[in-house]
């Protein structure tokens, strides 16, 4: 079955840049989506179609894609950005979606 | 405004059954694919099942295939998940979420979730 791989944790100092990666074989052909989940809350879509930002999501959130790796970048990290982040993408046939294992972002 | 409200969670014994519901409002329910995603305590997200806008296309994760049944009633703006032969590993918060057919993974609205606990 298809898998997406994320680092379990990323730490960044307040105001610095955070990068969270997600790797998967089908990512060159399938869009990636990024979700933010804070403790006790439901996930929120922060990036869609690799690099698009939904309305209401701060401009410091951006996404990029290069081959089998997609990256969520948070520029000028704020304390409220501390959360778990999940990538999501479809398998090569587009039949089903798979979540990455999630990355816990810690703001120091 | 778009709202998704899950209900039906609770405590059930192993081998038991439970039916989850998701009431939708604020959008044209019949235009959207609907999904159930779950999250075990302290764990990541797992896509359990989805159903197309008409109900003609359905997907199940291998972990629930043959035990769970997804359905929808477009007249009632409601999504359901019938869960049978429940196991301890099915313990999780279950979320419903919507997406469009052209972007299955673009889950733009989620419910607040309902907790299912499978324990003797």
Description:
The complex is a heterodimer of chains A (108) and B (120). Chain A has strands at residues 9-12, 18-23, 32-37, 44-47, 61-66, 69-74, 83-90, 97-99, 103-107. By secondary structure, chain A is an all-beta fold. In chain A, the strands form 2 sheets. In chain A, strands 1, 3, 4, 7, 8 and 9 form a 6-stranded mixed sheet that branches. A 3-stranded antiparallel sheet of chain A has the order 2-6-5, with no helix packed on it. With 120 residues, chain B is an all-beta fold. Chain B is 0% helix and 50% strand. In chain B, strands 2, 4, 5, 6, 9, 10 and 11 form a 7-stranded mixed sheet that branches. The chains are: A mainly beta (108), B mainly beta (120). The A-B interface holds A 1, 31, 33, 35, 37, 42-45, 48-49, 54, 84, 86, 88-90, 94-102 and B 37, 44-47, 50, 59, 61-62, 95, 103-108, 110-113.
Question: In summary, what is this structure?
Answer:
Chain A has 108 residues and is an all-beta fold. Chain A contains no helices and nine strands.
Describe the secondary structure blueprint for this structure.
The complex is a heterodimer of chains A (108) and B (120).
Chain A (H helix, E strand, L loop, with lengths): L8 E4 L5 E6 L8 E6 L6 E4 L13 E6 L2 E6 L8 E8 L6 E3 L3 E5 L1
Parallel strand pairs in A: 1-9
Antiparallel strand pairs in A: 2-6, 3-4, 3-7, 5-6, 7-8, 7-9
Chain B lengths: L2 E5 L2 E3 L5 E8 L7 E7 L5 E7 L6 E3 L7 E6 L4 E6 L8 E8 L9 E2 L3 E5 L2
Parallel strand pairs in B: 2-11
Antiparallel strand pairs in B: 1-3, 3-8, 4-5, 4-9, 5-6, 7-8, 9-10, 9-11
Return the structural class of chain A: mainly beta
Number of helices of chain B: 0
End-to-end Cα distance of chain B: 40 Å
Can you summarize the main beta sheet of chain B? 7 strands, mixed
| Rg from alpha-carbon coordinates of chain A | 13 Å
Round the mean pLDDT of chain A to the nearest integer and report it: 96
Low-confidence stretches of chain B: none
How much strand content do the residues of chain A show?
35-45%
- From the helix content, strand content and strand pairing of chain B, which structural class follows? mainly beta
Rough outline of chain A = globular
Strand content of chain B: over 45%
């Amino acid at each position: 079955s298809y898998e997406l791989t994320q680092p379990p944790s990323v730490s960044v100092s307040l105001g610095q840049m955070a990068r969270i990666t997600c790797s998967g074989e089908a990512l060159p052909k399938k869009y990636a989506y990024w979700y933010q989940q804070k403790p006790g809350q439901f996930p929120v879509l922060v990036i869609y179609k690799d690099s698009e930002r939904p309305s209401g999501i701060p401009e410091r959130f951006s996404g990029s894609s290069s081959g089998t790796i997609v990256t969520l970048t948070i520029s000028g990290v704020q304390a409220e950005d501390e959360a778990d982040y999940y990538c999501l993408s479809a398998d090569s046939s587009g039949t089903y979606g798979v979540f990455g294992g999630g990355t816990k972002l810690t703001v120091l | 405004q778009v709202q998704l409200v899950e209900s039906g969670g609770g405590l059930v014994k192993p081998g038991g059954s439970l039916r989850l519901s998701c009431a939708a409002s604020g959008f044209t329910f019949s235009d959207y694919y609907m999904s159930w995603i779950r999250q075990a305590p302290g764990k990541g997200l797992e896509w359990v099942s989805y159903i197309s806008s008409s109900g003609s296309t359905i997907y199940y994760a291998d972990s629930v295939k043959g035990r769970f049944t997804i359905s929808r009633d477009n007249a009632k703006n409601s999504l359901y998940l019938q869960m049978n032969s429940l196991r301890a590993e099915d313990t999780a918060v279950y979320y419903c979420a919507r997406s469009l057919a052209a972007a299955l993974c673009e889950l733009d609205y989620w419910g607040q979730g309902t907790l299912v606990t499978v324990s003797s």
